[in-house]
Amino acid sequence: MRTLVLNAGYEPLAVVSFKRALVLVMNDKATVVERLEGEPVWAASGSWERPAVIILTRYVRVPGSTHVPVTRRGVLRRDAQRCGYCDKSATTIDHILPRSRGGADSWENLVACCLRCSNVKGDRTPQEMGWELRVAPRPPRGPQWMVRGTDRSDPRWEPYLALAA
């Protein structure tokens, strides 16, 4: 069981475990906004609702940028596990401008790729191969990328994630 944590201004901060969310509620650092169905959790101090979404009682300033770090898993997720050249199922990633030619590990230079296209392309650019990319690669945006853990979201979280979009 996982819980979405909202800042005091209703912006999504993180997804935490059910236990961590319950500790925040028990210590009066958060309030339950959406509840899970079922029996409450019993403690020595009383019963507590099972939280699906909680909101912090005090605003937390989040130092950080809107930059999403580049990872292999992130590139595959951004491209929906589809090859950027042939649209088949992708299992690896490819540098559009190869690293041996100065290509960087950036969102704009990486694309999901099937093994066949990766082997055929080798150390060449798509232009040299006469290939075209299906879509131009760009950095991902949206709350599902900024709030860690929302890739497997709960339907009760949707209204709160939509506010942040």
Give a written overview of the molecule.
- The protein is elongated and about 70 Å long.
- The chain is 23% helix and 22% strand.
- The strands form 3 sheets. A 4-stranded mixed sheet has the order 2-1-6-3. Strands 4-5 form a two-stranded antiparallel ribbon. Strands 7-8 form a two-stranded antiparallel ribbon.
- It has 2 domains: 2-64 and 145-164, no CATH class; 72-129, Wheat Germ Agglutinin (Isolectin 2), domain 1, CATH 3.30.60.
- β1 and β2 form a beta hairpin.
- With 165 residues, the chain is of the alpha+beta class.
- It is built from 6 helices and 8 strands, in the order ββαββββαββαααα.
- The model has no long low-confidence stretch (mean pLDDT 86).
Count of DSSP H/I helices: 6
Number of domains: 2
Give the radius of gyration: 21 Å
Beta fraction: 15-25%
Shape estimate:
elongated
Q: What is the element string, with H for helices and E for strands?
A: EEHEEEEHEEHHHH
Oligomer: single chain
Low-confidence parts lasting 5 or more residues at pLDDT below 50?
Answer: none
Arrangement of strands in the largest sheet? 2-1-6-3
Instruction: Give the fraction of residues assigned to helices.
Output: 10-25%
Number of strands: 8
Sheet of most strands: 4 strands, mixed
Report how far apart the termini are.
24 Å
